[in-house]
Amino acid sequence: MMSDAAERFGRATDGFAARVDAVRRDQWQTQSPCPKWTVRDVTVHVINEARRMLATVRQTEPESLYGVQVAPMGELPETEPGADLPAAFRSIAAGLVAAIDDPTCRQVELPTFAGPQPFAELVDTLPEDVLIHTWDVARATGGDERLDPELVEYVFERFKPLDEMLRQPWAFGPKITPPEGADVQTQFLCFVGRLT
Questions:
Q1: How many domains does the chain have?
Q2: Which of 71, 81, 16, 19 is nearest to 45 (CA)?
Q3: Which of helix, strand or coil describes residue 53?
Q4: Does residue 170 surpass a pLDDT of 80?
Q5: Where does residue 36 rank: exposed (0-12), middle (13-18), buried (19+ CB within 10 A)?
Q6: pTM for this prediction
Q7: pLDDT of 173 higher than 80
Q8: Containing domain of residue 169, as a range?
Q9: 124: CB partners within 8 A, 6+ apart
Q10: 75-92 residue pLDDT tens
């Protein structure tokens, strides 16, 4: 039986995959809400970070996948002409969903800003990056910007206590005051500095 953490991450990855599947060929170089990143950059970022994490918990070396080369954490990998980004993401996402409930992966330690932590203690944070970048891709391409409301609430509640810590160059810029009566998704996107 799939754990709640695996089910949540699976829903987050399904949402991202659907937005990436909908990207037209002429939209990959469109500017995204992430400064200096195109839609392609956002997508390969998500692939590379997830692939690095999966390789660590599986205690293997990350490999080129569907034309997406390997890059260090935090850097954008090169992509070959004709790289299949949707296929690369789905492959890595499925591997991470399975790893969440794999006892051999759960105790592997991963580097974090707070020091090494077991994968088992980090699985609840996995939807965050994917969820936010789902909106980035949708906004940039004119796609469906509606995010899974339960996931939005879940991630938002986890972020609220980390407000000051998140205002870092590697995380988010200043938060924005949401309009009066804003729904939870709008509040969340303002909190992470996406809506202006």
A1: 2
A2: 71
A3: helix
A4: no
A5: exposed
A6: 0.93
A7: no
A8: 148-196
A9: 5, 8, 158
A10: 999 999 899 999 999 999
